[in-house]
Amino acid sequence: MENLIWLLPALPLFGFLLLAFLGSKFNREAIAFIGIGSVSLATIVSLYLAINFISSPPENGFISQTLWQWMQVNNFKVTITFHYDALSLVFVFVITFVGALIHLYSTEFMAHDEYYSRFFAYLNLFVCSMLILVLADNLVLLYLGWEGVGLCSYLLIGFWYKNIKNGIAAQKAFIITRIGDTSLAIGMFLLFKEFGTLTISEISQQAVSHSSSSITLIALLLFGGAVGKSAQLPLQTWLPDAMAGPSPVSALIHAATMVTAGVYLLARMHTIFELSPAAMHVVAAVGAATLLIAATSALAQKDIKRVLAYSTISQLGYMFLALGVGAWWAAIFHFMIHAFFKALLFLGAGTIIEAQHHEHNMFNMGGLKDKLPTVFKTFVIGSAALAALPLISAGFYSKDAIIWYSLTAQNGSPLLWLVAIIGSFITALYTTRMVVLTFYGTSKTSLSYQPGVRMHIPLIILAFLSVFAGFIELPHNFGHVTLFSGFVGKALPTTLLKIEPSESLFQLIAAIVCLVGILLGWKLYSSNREKVIDLESGGLFKFFFNGWYFDNLYKVLFQQPYFFLARINKNDIVDKSNDVIVGISSWLSNQLATSQTGSMRWYVMGIIAGAIMILTLQLVL
Amino acid sequence: MISNLSSDYVFLLAAILFALGAMGVVIRRNILFMLIAVEIMLNSAGLAFIAAGAKWAQADGQIMFLFILSMAAAEVSVGLALIMQIFHQHKTLDVDELEQLRGDRK
Amino acid sequence: MILVLLIVVLITGGILAWLIGYFIPNASKWIALLSCLIPFLITANLWQKLSYEIILGESSSLWLIEINTPWIAQLGINFHLGLDGLSLSMLLLTFFLGTMAILCSWKEITAKQNFFYFNLLWVLSGITGVFLALDLFLFYFFWEVMLIPMYFMISIWGSERRIYSSYKFFLFTQASGLLMLLAIIALYFINAQSSGVYTFDYDQLLISTAKSPYSLLIAIGFFIAFTVKLPLFPFHTWLPDAHSEAPTAGSVILAGLMLKTGAYGLLRFVLPLFKDEAIQISNWAIVLGVISILYGALQAFGQTDLKRLVAYTSVSHMGFIVLGVFSFNELAMQGVVLQMITHGISTAALFILAGMLKERLHTRDINQMGGLWTLAPQMGSIGLVFAMASCGLPALGNFIAEFLILLGAFQTQPIYTMVASLGLVLSAIYSIRMMQKVFFGEYQSTINDFKWREKTIMGLLTIAIVFVGLCPQPIITMLQSTVNSSLKLESKQKLKLESSIKQQIKYIKK
Predict the structure, then answer these.
(1) What integer is the mean pLDDT of C504-508?
(2) Across the interface, do A171 and C436 touch by the CB < 8 Å criterion?
(3) What are the TM regions of this chain, as residue ranges (chain A) (predicted)?
(4) SS3 label, residue A81
(5) Model confidence pLDDT, tens digit, residues B8-37
(6) B96 shares contact with chain A (CB less than 8 Å)
(7) C121: number of CA atoms within 13 Å, CB side?
(8) In this structure, what are the phi and psi dihedrals at residue A358, rounded to the nearest 5 degrees?
């Protein structure tokens, strides 16, 4: 079975190449077939590998396959090697499975788009890069996937390139994530300096016996990469703008997979992070701050996709909080559940927008409950998972674990727990706001289009998963199912608890907070819509609406100075130094030219004077 | 034969003639007189050569004078032809009017 | 002999193209193409043959192929050519890009075709000579050979400001060349004073132990000569003018090859001949390199002329080379050579693309472009590939080069390398700005997509850059011995041993 790993990225890559080179020659059916086919085949391969892996686990916990030697200079050796273990398995499964569903959805969503084949080519390339990222055995290969997904994200955000706004959003995403990437790259340089290798397993082996002061620095630099990719504080500003891309793209890249690459990176490099409690504290603090800032921002958005974008940032904040406190498996579990329900919500939002003449503003929606029944039902299920509705939603089980660990795990603290619980309250509030504004009340916009079966199937499957996927991991005070943590635990360290207060009590608090949030939301937003607009016209809401003015801050701090420098120095100030030389030469030339009077007499005088001078010199010397 | 002393006088005469010629070139405004002054300079040099040849009893001095003589003849013919041309084109022989040698200063 | 053949083919090809072009105008380009393809095939064949030898470790000497005959014996000047892994890779690049340059001027050059191809081939022959010469005088000779035809190429076939640019190019390179000549002559006499042998020979000078108080000055002379060509930060101002005004083929050769002769000079002469001095100036060099990286990127971002933009990206990328060379690390050194190759390919592609756009739109101003993807998706895709290459996207060659340089440099110069890494962000900024301005947005002008000739050029360049990005190992292996010898002191001793053996053999023969 190890011979099959290469197929995972190779199949989408093949699809990409086919579409990129011959895309214009195929008709739409063939394009859709290739696009879905390559990813579906990859899904089948991933399921086959997963079943094999679970039924007959390899001895050392992973399978690897080396394709070829990439580069070797002296002791620096990098191969194209795939490393398949429990952690990769989860990611590969989510990427291929959710990816395939989103491809299916896209065939209908993009059905009338001019650039059908380009879209699927990019999507396939994305799936390929993402799979390389999570399967990479060394950091250089991981970086290849990392940059590859960044490129695809850039291309897909700016997919409708004729509108300049999309282009700006795409550039923003690329540049801001690139800042994180650079931090990751520097982290890799430092890792190589310390360990002499960039192969992850070798680093992990050496790290245990390695005591170096630079470990914290390495961890923080790696985390810098994750911050960029996963839109955490302070590089979170690109994600809300990234919603300029088509909705399936937002679902796949900016919710389910790419933005969680940072979570994957930290989980993968957990040995480094475990050695540095300081770095772990930073991770947890950044996660907590992000989740709060993003949640409040989500509360004030008017564009449905921007609500979801901020909620993604916020949920990613939960994952980083979990990683930071040392609840490794909880983060991965939340990643999986989040991938299901957030993809569902984005796809649902995409359908709603598509069905309403591309209306993004929730205040112009309403009353869609009866018009789009299937979308409504699935969307509500997804929202329940996002709000972590107790007991019946998968989101509850994953998020509750994080909240619980943020208090009790190694690096947990009451403050983190408090932030997490407040975040969960705001989450419930904005989720309810979104659902109520979109589906209830009176209809504002007429329906332009009824979604078909290819849009409904992914919604239904994802809704199913958003409910039932949670049951594979139940807290030990009721149910005590540890299928997921037990499985992923093979690849990740176990979560150590420092205190053990009554878990039921805290679950109860979390559940009550969530329910209060939902009820409050219902009460506030299902009333008269004018009142709601009134309520949200305050200064605080404006502050939240603009995402705490991070964009404006960066504009003043970085963008404008850089633009200014580039503009004033367009003609290159250094070039002026040549003008100085040129100036001196031409000045001297002018001085000499004045002696050239044209009068014969002067010249003869000159000759005679010169002759006398030479003769005198001859006599004197 | 002339004595050493007298040859020194000849040198002195040559020098004075040369200086006079040079003065003439510098001071004169008429180009024809400048040419004559140049001739005087040339002949002073010739005189110096002859005197030197006589003093050291070498034939070189006289040979050089022959060279100078023939060159002066050629120079006068070319010079006069040029002066004719200049007069034709500018209707003047005043050098101060003829500042054509000055380059185009930018 | 085969090395002489490479140069001779180009020189005679140039003369033939010139002469025959008078009678049959269209023949000159075919002659040029042919006389560029022949050396390319010869080098490719050599590569294949020699890579086996290298892997098996059969070649005992540093030089895989060598030819050495007296030229001006009275002054100790030899016609000494030598080929090692470094020169071989550079030659392969030279002929590859030379072919591309000829193909891309196929339709662009209509006036005085024959003289154009003459100049082009002579530039190439000069570059070939520079990459092969092992006699410092000969090296200087070829250095000048490559300069003058280039001057003609810019001043005759350039665009509006061609006279200004060609003067500037000529003066900068000539002034720096003068510095090099002085340094070479000084080296010559210093060596002669200590050893009594008047020689310009590289191998001899390499083992010379002559020390003089002026060696730092001499090293700086070489350094400036090469970094003006490279170009490094304060000396870079000739480059944007020359690149933007030159015809496409001229820009391709300038950026793709001529800049590399500067880097080659640093690797071949400055490091091995002036080990200690190089260490002395390394800090300054690195600072300038880092400034180049950032300044070039900033300037590239500010430009509106597409070719000027690409020219400034070259400044930025060449900064990486200086950083790599002066961090004295094997990884970085490998990265430097790879950077020379990949930057050659990617920048050539961008210049060719700019040339094609200019042919179609008659402007280089990116504000007048936009939305070209709609009508020319193939052009857009290729533009995307090479824009990404220039911002160092993995799987494309430039990534390998820049990554190795930074990784290597970090081991010795962590702080500077961290600052230099900012270049990764800035390069992303200018690359995607270029993409946005040229290919995205609403379209303003009609444009035709690639024709078969253009498709061939771009296809080959793309294959090359992807190949280097995914399988750089053959090149790395080929360069191993050169990189080691330009870094390590012990190999110097080995060389000394070798040459003494050689001399003994000579005595025995006598």
Answers:
(1) 59
(2) yes
(3) 6-23, 30-51, 86-107, 119-136, 142-161, 173-192, 212-228, 249-267, 279-300, 307-329, 335-353, 374-397, 417-441, 453-472, 505-525, 602-620
(4) strand
(5) 888 999 999 999 998 888 888 888 898 999
(6) yes
(7) 31
(8) 55, 40
Residues A328-359: tens digit of each pLDDT: 888 899 999 999 999 999 999 888 888 887 88
8 Å CB contact of A158 and C440: yes
C-alpha–C-alpha distance, residues C355 and C454, integer Å: 11
Tokens describing residue C166: 């060609």
Range list of H helices, A62-214: 86-109, 116-135, 139-157, 164-195, 200-208
Q: How far apart are CA B44 and CA B60, in angstroms?
A: 16
Q: What per-residue confidence (pLDDT) applies to C474?
A: 86
Q: Which of B22, B25, B100 sits opposite A598 (nearest CB)?
A: B100
How many CB pairs lie under 8 A apart between chains A and C?
Answer: 133
Q: Which among B34, B95, B103 has the least Cβ separation from residue A593?
A: B103
Write out chain A residues lying below 8 Å of B100, CB-based.
Answer: 598
CB within 8 Å: C424 and A154? no
What is the Cβ-side half-sphere exposure of residue B66, based on CA atoms within 13 angstroms? 5
A140 touches chain C (CB under 8 A): yes
Over residues A424-460, the pLDDT tens digits come to: 999 998 898 888 888 887 777 777 778 888 888 889 9
Instruction: Return the residue matching tokens 């009790």.
Output: A408
Q: Which residues of C touch A162 (CB under 8 A)?
A: 371, 374, 440-443
Residues of chain A positioned with their CB less than 8 A from the CB of B25: 604
CATH 1.10.287.3510 fits B4-96, yes or no: yes
pLDDT score at B4: 56
Backbone angles phi, psi at C189, to 5 degrees: -75, -35
**3 state SS of A409:** strand
Q: What Cα–Cα distance (Å) separates residue C281 from each residue in A429, C284, C421, C486?
A: 63, 6, 22, 16
Q: Where are the domains of chain B?
A: 4-96
Give the per-residue pLDDT at C489.
46
- Nearest by Cα to C153 from C257, C249, C229, C239: C249
- DSSP assignments along A454-478, one per residue: HHHHHHHHHHHHHHHGGGGB--TTT
Six-digit token string for A243? 């919603």
Dump pLDDT digits (tens) for A369-388: 788 888 888 999 999 888 88
